[in-house]
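Action item from last week, closing it out:
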Amino acid sequence: MPQIEVVILDMYRGSSRLDSQKSEPRGLFTSPDGSAVLDWISAAVATFSPVKITYFGSYQIQKVIEKFPDFDYRFLKNNGITGELEVVRLMLEESCENLVILRADSIILPAALTRLVQGFDKLNTSHISVNGTDIFAGAVYIPASARK
């Protein structure tokens, strides 16, 4: 398995409640089993021991920091697609590693992540088929060799 740096994008507003203690970013949305989406992502990326995991976000970021203290963090005010594109541009300039970029609200299984990165020396994206239509599933692999 190649050396990989993981980037998690949480650029969209999560759930906002009058009681801010109940507000949360998308990465902390819970699945029916009670685990957060970031728990699923963390378990999937742990299978290949990434060099670094960096979380980019702003909304309620302190809650993510409390729950996932081993991530690196970058506060980014720009939200939505503009923020995502800004992060990708930044990481392409800063990182020398193979990059896996994941949206914080995408549940991904270890086998799917392995399939995304193994054997590819070019850009690879994840898609799912819904009613015969391919939809972006929130994961991108950018090998270092594709940027040289």
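Closing note: DSSP finds four helices and six strands in the chain.
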